[in-house]
Amino acid sequence: MDPRQARTWSRLVEVVHEIAAERPIDEVSVAEVARRAAITRDTFYRHASGPSDLLSRVLRAELDELLADFSTEADARGGGFAVFDVAERALLAHMREHRAIYRGAMSPRLVPELRDMLVDTIERSLLDLLERHPEIAPAGPAGVDRARQLRVSAAYAASGTIGAIEVWLADDEPAASDDAARAILAASPAWWFSPVD
What we know:
- This protein is mainly alpha-helical.
- The chain has one domain (52-191).
- Helix content is 71%, strand content 0%.
- The protein contains 9 helices and no strands.
- The chain has helices spanning 3-22, 30-37, 41-45, 51-77, 80-97, 99-104, 112-132, 146-170, 177-186.
- Helix 1 packs across helix 4 (51-77) and helix 5 packs across helix 9.
- It starts with a helix and ends in an 11-residue tail after the last helix.
- 30% of the residues are buried.
- The model has no long low-confidence stretch (mean pLDDT 87).
């Protein structure tokens, strides 16, 4: 990204955070984001297809950074529960920090772009962990392709996690991040508690 594009992206990040914290992202227009970012609509469309897509891209970048740290820590921790506990708490802390943004993106579930991004991000992280630590991977039924079984397990866990997080976000007086993490982990698949070598 050249310096001018980087400055534009930085401004878009700032503006979409501001606007999404003020009101629901599905009520925001491209024209408003472009005006507040002091760019043209054409420039906006070089970065995203709409405000929800922009918000999804911005939050994905933040989560990718968070999950890169988790990936490194997962190898050092040595226990399945510890690994997922740390990751779940970090994810919920991020969401609590941006609570107004995430709540503004719900009606009653998260807008599709944001929900899909979250499920995909968690799913990729889980698949990465399973590839690096096949010993914790859930056993599938006989005759089911191993790679397919891993994708099914990661998809199931990721979608369930986001569904639980939506319940937590929708609560007018949400539990603390740590309490929510414990509740989600209590409902998590058994393979999350397998020891990591």
